Amino acid sequence: MTQLDDRYAARSVPRYTSYPTAPHFHAGIDGTTYGRWLDEIPAEEALSLYLHVPYCRTICAYCGCHTKGARKDGPVIAYAETLLREIDLVADRLGSQRPVTHIHWGGGTPSLLPRDSFLALVERLRRRFRLEDGHEHAIELDPRTVTPELADTLRDAGITRASLGVQDFDATVQVAIGRVQPQAQVARAVELLRAVGITAINFDLMYGLPHQSVATIDETVRATREMAPGRIALFGYAHVPWFKKHQRLIDEEALPDTQARIALADHARAALIDAGYRAIGLDHFALPDDSMAIALQDGSLRRNFQGYTTDTADTLIGFGCSSIGYLPQGYVQNMPDIGGWQRAIEAGELPIVKGIALDADDRVRAEIIERLMTDHQADIPEIAGRHGFAPSHFSDAFEALEELIADGLVTEDGGRVVITPAGQRYARIAAAAFDAYLARGTARHSIAV
Questions:
Q1: Cα–Cα nearest to 331, from 303, 309, 353
Q2: Percent of the residues in the chain that have a pLDDT greater than 90, as a whole number
Q3: How far apart are CA 5 and CA 15, in angstroms?
Q4: For the residues of 279-328, what is the DSSP string, one character each?
Q5: Cβ(357)–Cβ(367) under 8 Å?
Q6: Is 283 helix (H, G, I), strand (E, B) or coil?
Q7: Does 251 have pLDDT greater than 90?
Q8: Bridge partners for 43 per DSSP
Q9: Which residues contact 11 (CB under 8 A, 6 or more apart)?
């Protein structure tokens, strides 16, 4: 491990899938505020929709998602019925059939929704919103749940993109993280999806897992390239057992130390690039003809709660417990407990538990942080000027960057900040220089690499 790695890699910093980040949301934003914000959305403004389904058949030991186990369909069906009512609540408040360019189903395992429940939800979305031609309709899938029947359901629902949670193909690693799915099973899931016309495939891979090695990374990349997903998300495992208690099932002695973790991240990145993928931002990769690689090239790449995205809508409506939405006025988050979320909706209330209203300073910093996280550069005077600020407004941020500049990880010329190739693994640290909330927060974040 280099001296730079020793100084930076283990720093705790946000992932910046939003700014301000979720730990700074507060209870002063409620359903009444959200309703007012919905009223203010222009009639023809394009929307993005996110639907959260917080159920899995079993909980994987590494999981950091908001989910719970459900071995039977009853709770999932009841949850879907409440989702239908929440869709109606929001659509009634919007007052007209609004255009939608992107739909994303997350979880949990949203494919646990029985066919009738899933198709009923999709039909409700079609009836209450105007799904634009060419809209992306994406879903996160557990490869172990993909059957011919599910593939047919996804086709009938109009799904255009599927993201498969792979993590690592090594059998020992899979046992250690509680997610056993042989390579042949994942390959069969990909085959079934493509057979029904769902050809936009994503893989989620991870580094920093117990018992991982350069050899397991090589085999995982080889098998991945053989199946040729268009996009890959390569996430660093965040071991946060104080927050996700089931992670205590993971043997901490089997986790790579910081030096080994960095080596795994570097090796995986190099192997994916050698396999023909283009590096996207902090942790995504795409084949050159994928729309995400094109978005990086033309400067339209964005970052939101799903990570890097081609979704350019300025308003995201979140449905389901714990889901987060963003609007031009600010962020909102639904109640995290299923019971409270259901009771609020049954009472005809928008189930918002917290959020944050954005001011001018938040908006300019959010744009700077997003550009650093996506393009690895930001023209501070240009962005500041468009938001009505002088570059001097960020004097503290420039001061915070001095260490990174001295170490060759960032350059600055005339206010233009560029993260160098050597500094890209520390992009979150560079972005954090512009975070006005970080110093006053008490939240614990994952490490930088």
A1: 353
A2: 82
A3: 18
A4: EETTTEEE-TTSHHHHHHHHT--EEETTEEE----SEEEEESTT-EEEET
A5: no
A6: coil
A7: no
A8: none
A9: 429, 447, 448
Distance between CA atoms of residues 376 and 179, nearest Å: 34
Alpha helices for 308-379 (secondary structure H):
338-346, 360-374
The closest alpha carbon to 260, from 223, 209, 299, 218, belongs to 209
From CA 79, how far away is CA 280, in angstroms rounded? 35
Distance of CA 136 to the CA centre of its chain: 16
Q: Provide the 10 A C-beta neighbour count for residue 102.
A: 24
Q: Helix, strand or coil for residue 438?
A: helix
Identify the residue whose tokens are 């081609």: 310
What is the CA 377 to chain-centroid distance, rounded? 21
Q: Residue 447: pLDDT above 60?
A: no
Cα separation values, 25 from 16, 240, 438, Å: 14, 20, 13
User: Parallel, antiparallel, or unpaired for β 352-357 and 330-334?
Assistant: antiparallel
Contact 190, 226 (CB under 8 A): no
Nearest residue to 68 via CA among 249, 338, 345, 305: 338
Q: How far apart are the first and last CA of the chain?
A: 12
pTM for this one?
Answer: 0.93
CB atoms within 10 A of CB 230: 20
CA dihedral sign, ordered 226, 197, 191, 301:
positive
Q: What is the DSSP letter of 17?
A: S
Helix or strand run (H / E) with residue 324: strand 324-327
Measured between alpha carbons, how far is 23 from 1 in angstroms, rounded to an integer?
Answer: 31
Query: Which tokens in the block code for residue 382?
Result: 């240009």
Please tell me the distance from the alpha carbon of residue 89 to that of residue 35, in angstroms, as a whole number: 10
Phi, psi of 331 (to 5 degrees): -105, 150
Q: List the structure tokens of 415.
A: 């206010």
Residue with tokens 């889901």, as numbered in its chain: 323
Tell me the pLDDT tens digit for each residue of 261-293.
889 999 999 999 999 999 999 899 999 999 999
Q: Has residue 432 got a pLDDT over 80? A: yes
- Are 411 and 402 in contact by the 8 Å Cβ rule? The answer is no
Strands lying side by side in the sheet with 231-236: 278-280, 284-286, 231-236, 200-207, 161-167, 129-141, 98-107, 47-53, 315-319, 324-327, 330-334, 352-357
- Which secondary structure element, helix H or strand E, spans residue 194, and what is its range? helix 183-195
CA distance 123 to 116: 10
If you average pLDDT over residues 345-368, what whole number do you get? 98
Quote the CA–CA distance of 254 and 80 in Å, as a whole number. 39
Average pLDDT of the residues in 419-436: 94
H/E run at residue 206 = strand 200-207
Which of these, 292, 272, 281, 250, lies nearest to 17 by C-alpha position? Answer: 281
